[in-house]
Structure of Succinyl-diaminopimelate desuccinylase:
Amino acid sequence: MLSPEILADPVELTRALVDVESVSGNEAALADQVEAALRGAPHLSVERHGNVVLASTALGRPQRVVLAGHLDTVPVAGNLPSRAEGDLIHGCGTSDMKSGAALALHLAATVAEPRYDVTYLFYDCEEVEAERNGLNVLARTHPDKLAADFAILLEPTYGLVEAGCQGTMRAVVTATGQRAHAARSWLGVNAIHAAGAIMTTLGAYQPRTVTIDGCTYREGLNAVRISGGVAGNVIPDECRVEINYRFAPDRTEAEAAAHVRGLFPDFEVEITDSAPAAMPGLDGAIAKEFLDVVGQPPQAKLGWTDVARFAAAGVPALNFGPGDPNLAHKPEEHVEISKIRAGAATLRRWLAA
Amino acid sequence: MLSPEILADPVELTRALVDVESVSGNEAALADQVEAALRGAPHLSVERHGNVVLASTALGRPQRVVLAGHLDTVPVAGNLPSRAEGDLIHGCGTSDMKSGAALALHLAATVAEPRYDVTYLFYDCEEVEAERNGLNVLARTHPDKLAADFAILLEPTYGLVEAGCQGTMRAVVTATGQRAHAARSWLGVNAIHAAGAIMTTLGAYQPRTVTIDGCTYREGLNAVRISGGVAGNVIPDECRVEINYRFAPDRTEAEAAAHVRGLFPDFEVEITDSAPAAMPGLDGAIAKEFLDVVGQPPQAKLGWTDVARFAAAGVPALNFGPGDPNLAHKPEEHVEISKIRAGAATLRRWLAA
């Protein structure tokens, strides 16, 4: 049970959330606690859909903002329960993103009269396949619940505004050949040797750097998997190279796909997975007000996040959270207490003004 | 039961052996039939070791030869029972190598007074890992059973003498890198991209052609498997390329390993498997007599065969069988009836002279 004292302290609240294990698929206990805490706040109306918990104010403000965070973590790596040491809290999910979820829950519980109407949104299964992602499911089943003029996703950004996100696309580039017995290799065509040209293209590729709204997006094109071969005595007739292309928000998915295909004219290219980029969306009034309070220049988000789901729903969204993105998913994951306090103060100054 | 009539006809005998399914590991029923047939010949003394069946004459001849063949086949591919069509017998094992085993069994049953003492040797598990190979097991447990002045392995050679064999070596060449999130790929080093240099070396490699005793051995160096990758969003830190080197009999295994290592000075090279080449061994008197009867120039055996086990035991050995080596292991495997009859006649002329 999250007491009023814990809800009033975002650092204690972070520890409390971290100490309820909630690896993707196992969020129910944590969602129960979050729901109970929100139901204790008379200014919020609360809904639960599976392990998605929503709490909204209805103050009749002209604008609505969303504060959103996921409740799940990657698998525990011997790093629970949490452990405090100086300015650090160590543990699974401290950075990604229970410290961020704690900020949203802390504000939900303690800011009774925000200057915008607010939807607080806690969801499950962000760390696994998109089909299970609670925000994705909600966007499909209750799209009206995402409706807002602006959204902040409390993913780890180390206290900076990380705006928009790059798109990500996976493609399989296939080199083909002809099987033969390895003792008579000249009767075949070696597909793995042929795939060398794919690697040469990848190695020589110069990724773009694109600046939008003052945010610089650095692209990347990389082989992430390779496989080929039939048996130890057979010239292989197929070699598959899986490629991941991270592209700046000035490209649509279709443009990104055409770009990848154009790089490998001599090979079969199959696009296997794709998620759009999100423009930074910093030109709106609420975004500018928020940037003023943060007082730091915005940066590009490197990596795909659920801000793209808000962008796809027509809601400008950015990432802002206390965790360090470079520590996400690592056994040594931790968060700085001072970043939690600073983040809470920033959000309060903006929301309660 | 193999009747005297069937044993007297190498074509009928081939069909009879083919129609007893004997995929590696399942040779017992066929070995039983072979053993019973051999025990029916009063001039032979017969032994059974597992599914290895041995039959020997003891006529006090000054020299002994071995006729050897394996009883197992690769997995059936909808090609049993056998089917005759014109000059062809279709079916699993027709070429590799029940037609060859049939010749040995036919001669064992019908040549009571060969000019050399003969050991007829039928063994199991040639088509699977070397540890299970019946000839290999026999060489370890009863090395004296292989003792001879000359050996013929009735592997498919399409009626030609294929002498010696190439060595075969497998090595894993590993490219390493540094993991990073694919959204921040510049923080990592992509091992799959790095492996492109391995493919470039393989693609540019000029294999040797080596002639010994009139037999020309054509080498080959090929990637046979490749693997690498951690996850769809991670820059991979390892890419493994498995290479198969087929080398001519003028190179020892140690020389072959040094050659492979020398090609990839910038990568880790691990030799994972190795089998020596066998010199053609055509300079002995019995080999020359046999070549005279065949009346065709010898060729190099392309591919590793168990002749190397005889060579390692100090017994000159060559391959000679009616099957077509290019049909081995294929669903459309078949053997020409005329090749079976010609092979039987050649062996009889040599052995019964």
Q: What stands out?
A: Chain A touches chain B through 46 residues (CB under 8 Å).
